Please model this.
Amino acid sequence: MKKTILTLAITALMAGTVSTVYGQTPDKKAEQARENLKDAKHDEVKANKDLKKAQKDSVSEYQKFKKEAEVKFAEHQKSFIDFKARIAKEKAENKAQYEKKLAILEQKNTDLQKKLDDYKEAGKDKWDAFTHKFNHDMNELGTSLKNFTVGKKS
Model:
């Protein structure tokens, strides 16, 4: 009987020891998981702040770009008005040719305005590509307007 009680006591002691050792490991894992969760929440908050800042910068960059483009569009409109006045003084045979060339340039200007107005935000890379192409087209139109002459030079 003493042997049975001793065996049961040793078994109980070993079971208690084993359960305590294994019981601590999940606590360490749970603590690590809590720390990871806390870090993840902190990272999420930081990412949200960065996103809001990037969106704000993106909007202000777009507005600045649009204002600069509007100034160029206004300059183009002044040029169109000036050219129309000079074309009106031309002979009938030259007038049609000049009006056709000017109509093409006006359409390019209108297309660029529409392209800018219709632009939807699609990421930094697409914005950079859009601004590059838009500026190229705008400069090309400006060059065409500078080279457009009405009168004997043409």
